[in-house]
Design a protein that fits this description.
Chain A: Residues 34-265 form the Solute-binding protein family 3/N-terminal domain. Chain A: Residues 1-23 form the signal peptide. Chain A: Keywords: Signal, Transport. The complex is a heterodimer of chains A (342) and B (385). With 342 residues, chain A is an alpha/beta fold. Chain A is built from 14 helices and 13 strands. In chain A, a hairpin with a 5-residue loop joins strand 2 and strand 3. The mean pLDDT of chain B is 87. Classes of the chains: A alpha/beta (342), B mainly alpha (385). Chains A and B meet through helix 1, strand 2, strand 4 and helix 4 of A and helix 9, helix 10 and helix 15 of B.
Chain lengths: 342, 385
């Protein structure tokens, strides 16, 4: 996610590829009968196999939502696990139709790499975790003056850390590790006072610590990592479908439409709900998108609304127990805001 | 002629005396092997202390304290972590391995189709076992079945799409299945190809020699990781849109060619050890090139380099884990992937999963190694020491 070298490589690759992105991804997808979706090889809460080998996670569920919008079946999707290095090539070469792999939305990727980001399915950012037993009373990163901090080398995480402490005139000792496993083990054995990586990662790491309840994730977020699904530039119709699938998930949560009550909601008196669910007379919202008018019904039936997806995979319904925070709806103090469906 | 009185000549052999107490029995063995010099004694004591420290801990972790059953992570957690084990508990979370065992063996191969993999495995063992046992009859037929027919049967069974078997794309394959497929193809291709390349490199025909040298040196000069990476990263960019190459096929070709180049050099080492007289002897019998090589030279040369050949096989078996680079999940890859399952995230999961993967690799490598030592002893007819 964070290595300039990879970006340069990717950009070079794209120079070769600029002409390949073909129009008509939706037609291709309909013809082959499934969406080919690029996901992370393994990331807790975002894309990981369950006991039966099925893919689960927030990024995975977004792929299923897109498949459901098109086919009415969240299982008409095939997953291509991609490493950080080959994800952009896979999208540009047409190996995948959609990249839903915790990818940070940056201008460089939007322009030079030729991607179109459809939205932000998860607002992540670099944070800190400390051992509350070892450092009692620390409840802000600004109190970490003089602390030793475990960090993975060669990532922007390391740079952000340096910038943050310098900007706040704080002293710190970076304890740098090549591999994330080494950093985890060092932190767990008490070699550092604090651990820094993306917040979603901190919650996942906390599960593997010897005494998870002793460790707290501090509220400060020192970098912006808006993660979202992306598609190739040059196919606006497909881009619209992915983008509005994301908005439909948010709108459903805003209107209280859930996997369980979506059928009852079709009889709702509210004109807004009727419009979103495509039961308004002579509606053309779905067909204008290139889908059926009940596309939102299909999405919510397959995966639930955004809140349900969040809670199931990373929130209170999962072992990660990540609070909604920035990912709450705008009406509840978060940043998730859907454009109106009308 | 003088007659001898032979009454003092013994008519029966003297029975051997028992060895002196200082040279026989338990005590002597100990003195000779463990406490011969002060340094030996010190090392022995140190080693025993290290074992006494480590073995109980390992046994305790792997067996006595281990958690064998459970449906999710809570089975392998201490009270402080939200489970039921006492604080400070440390034991293997075998429940994780048993919940994920199907994936570790077959990857995402559809559950209702897994009998095909198992059947292939049974065929594999049934054909391989008699091939490995020297006394078993019909070696020729067996070899033809194993190396000639079995690959096709296995292909039809595993890939499917014929005779009513549903097609299973290779991106769903994983776990031990991928490890074994890669190794089998690598071994079956690399030995004959390696022999041909080795002969080519020692050939007197310039073109054949040059091509062999170029192939061997090019392949040996590039790391396997690079080739796999290029195959997955660059190949799709040069291919026309919509054309995708099967990832498993890319890996198979890469691994097989790599093993062949290394095998060629091992075999060449054996060829160099054969004295010139053997070649001349074969020539003087009027044998042609292939007869000479097949009947006189190769049997001796290959026998000499069995350790090198098996070394290459074992190295290749472990190199298959590199396919993780191209997002294929061999045994190690799928174990690591499942470590990301938040439902099993515990402090013990990673250790247990990796120990399991290591143990499976060890079983295969160790059996290959033991079998090669057995074959060496059996074939070591000329130079037995």
């Amino acid at each position: 996610m964070k290595n300039t070298l990879k970006v340069v490589l990717g950009a070079a690759a794209l120079g070769l590829m600029a002409s390949v992105a073909s129009a008509g991804t939706l037609e291709d997808v309909k013809a082959k009968g499934f969406v080919q979706c690029g996901v992370n090889t393994a990331l807790a809460g975002f894309s990981a196999p369950d006991d039966k080998g099925n893919w689960t996670g927030l990024d995975v569920d977004f792929c299923r939502a897109v498949a459901a919008a098109i086919f009415g079946d969240g299982n008409k999707v095939k997953f291509t696990p991609l490493s950080a290095k080959d994800r952009f090539t896979a999208l540009q070469s047409g190996e995948v139709d959609l990249l839903s792999r915790n990818t940070t939305w940056t201008i460089q990727r939007d322009t030079a790499l030729g991607l179109n980001f459809a939205g932000v399915t998860y607002y992540d950012g670099q944070g800190f975790m400390v051992n509350a037993k070892k450092l009692p009373g620390v409840n802000s990163a600004l109190q970490l003056s003089g602390a030793s901090v475990c960090v993975q080398s060669g990532t922007t995480t390391e740079l952000n850390l340096a910038d943050y402490f310098k900007a706040n005139n704080l002293e710190y000792n970076p304890v740098v590790f090549e591999k994330v496993e080494e950093a985890n083990a060092a932190y767990d054995s008490g070699r550092c006072d604090a651990y820094t990586t993306d917040q979603s990662g901190l919650y996942a790491i906390r599960l593997t610590l010897a005494a998870p309840d002793d460790h707290v994730v501090l509220p400060e977020i020192i970098s912006k990592e808006p993660l979202g699904p992306s598609v190739r530039q040059g196919d606006d119709k497909w881009f619209d479908i992915v983008k509005w699938t994301y908005y439909a998930l948010l709108t459903a949560e805003e209107l209280g439409i859930t996997q369980a009550n979506v059928d009852e909601m079709k009889n709702s008196a509210s004109p807004e709900i009727k419009r979103v669910l495509g039961v308004e007379a002579e509606t053309k919202i779905g067909t204008d998108l290139g889908l059926d008018n009940d596309w939102v019904v299909k999405i919510v039936k397959a995966t639930g609304n955004y809140g349900e997806i969040f809670e199931r995979n990373v929130g209170s319904g999962s072992p990660l127990k990540i609070a909604r925070g920035l990912n709450g709806l705008w009406t509840k103090g978060g940043l998730q805001y859907a454009m109106p469906i009308r | 002629m003088q007659e001898h009185d032979v009454s003092w000549v013994r008519t029966e052999m003297v029975l051997a005396e028992a060895a002196p107490r200082s040279q026989a029995g338990f005590g002597a063995w100990f003195r000779k092997n463990l406490f011969a010099t002060p340094i030996d004694a010190a090392l022995t004591v140190l080693a025993l202390l290290a074992l006494a420290w480590a073995v109980p801990q390992i046994l305790n972790w792997a067996f006595f304290s281990a958690q064998w059953t459970g449906a999710d992570r809570s089975a392998c957690l201490t009270v402080a972590q939200g489970g039921s084990h006492p604080d400070g508990w440390s034991g293997a979370c075998w429940a994780f391995v048993s919940a994920k065992f199907g994936q570790f063996m077959f990857g995402r191969y559809p559950i209702e189709e897994r009998w095909r993999v198992i059947l292939t495995g049974i065929l594999f063992v049934a054909l391989l076992a008699p091939l490995l046992i020297p006394r078993a009859p019909y070696k020729g037929l067996n070899a033809i079945l194993f190396f000639g027919l079995f690959p096709f049967v296995a292909f039809f069974l595993l890939v499917g799409g014929f005779f009513g078997l549903p097609y299973v794309e290779t991106s769903l394959w994983g776990g031990l299945l991928v490890t074994l497929v890669l190794s089998y193809v690598g071994i079956v291709v690399s030995l004959p190809l390696g022999i041909i390349l080795a002969l080519g490199r020692r050939s007197h025909m310039p073109a054949v020699k040059l091509l062999s040298v170029i192939f061997i040196e090019t392949v040996r000069g590039v790391p396997l990781v690079t080739v796999l990476f290029m195959a997955s990263f660059m190949l799709p960019l040069f291919a026309p849109p919509g054309v995708t190459f099967d990832k498993l096929l890319r890996a198979l070709i890469g691994v097989a060619l790599f093993a062949s180049a290394y095998m060629a050099e091992v075999v060449r080492g054996g060829l160099q050890a054969i004295p010139k007289g053997q070649y001349e002897g074969a020539d003087s019998l009027g044998l042609g090139y292939w007869q000479k090589m097949g009947l006189i030279i190769m049997p001796q040369a290959l026998k000499l380099v069995i350790p090198g050949i098996v070394n290459t096989f074992i190295g290749m078996f472990k190199d298959t884990t590199l396919v993780l680079i191209i997002s294929m999940f061999d045994l190690l890859g799928i174990v690591k992937q499942n470590l990301a399952d938040a439902n099993w995230a515990t402090p013990q999961t990673a250790k247990t999963g990796l120990v399991f993967a290591g143990f499976v690799f060890w079983i295969f490598c160790f059996s290959m190694s033991r079998y090669s030592m057995y074959m060496e002893r059996r074939l070591d007819t000329g130079l037995r020491r």
